[in-house]
Amino acid sequence: MQPNSTSSRPTNWRRRLAIGTAILAPFAIAACGSSSGSTASPTSAAKPTAKAPAKDTVDIKLIAYRPATMTVTAGTTVTWNQMDPGVHTITSGTVAQGTSGVTEQPDGMFASGEIATGKKYTHTFSKPGTYKYFCEIHPATMTGEITVK
Ligand SMILES: [Cu+2]
Q1: Alpha-carbon distance 135 to 65, whole Å?
Q2: Which tops the pLDDT comparison, 39 or 148?
């Protein structure tokens, strides 16, 4: 049974190779076409800054603000990206945790309301200070802080 299986192998292999080249060829041509078009873009100067993580964006992921603490300069508009299923809020203020449970203490400076999956919330911090915030749905675990300098 060995001779039979080995004798049929070369034809199969050759056929597969021919199909592979036929499929790859159009992609190679398409890749060349698109790259020649993008060489004219003037984004090369902006590349070093794009490499660093954005310092004005907070991701809401796995029931947490990431990063939970951030420092920005006055006048910065901070964007929160809600990436979790369900809803979260960005509500300024603090949360008191005592023996009786969790007490939300919003200070009224900003409140996003419920933010659905894939939605954003932005707030511009014009004055220096420390701005604490929390999620009204998960106040016991979701808190964050923006320091404005
Ligand atoms: Cu939440």
Answers
A1: 9
A2: 148
Cα separation, 44 vs 111, in Å, equals 38
**The CATH number of domain 54-148 is 3.40.50.12780:** no
Q: List alpha helices for the chain, DSSP H.
A: 2-38, 47-51
CA–centroid distance, 148 to ligand 1, in Å, is 23
Calculate how far, in angstroms, residue 63's C-alpha sits from the geometric centre of ligand 1.
6
Taking only the tens place, the pLDDT of each residue in 102-147 is 999 999 999 999 999 999 999 999 999 999 999 999 999 999 999 9
Q: How far is the CA of 82 from the centre of ligand 1 (A)?
A: 10
- The pTM of the full predicted model, rounded to 2 decimals, is 0.65
CA of 95 to the centre of ligand 1 (A): 13
CA–centroid distance, residue 89 to ligand 1 (Å): 6
78 alpha carbon to ligand 1 midpoint, in Å?
Answer: 18
Asked whether the beta carbons of 70 and 78 are under 8 A apart, the reply is yes
Mean pLDDT, residues 79-95 taken together: 98
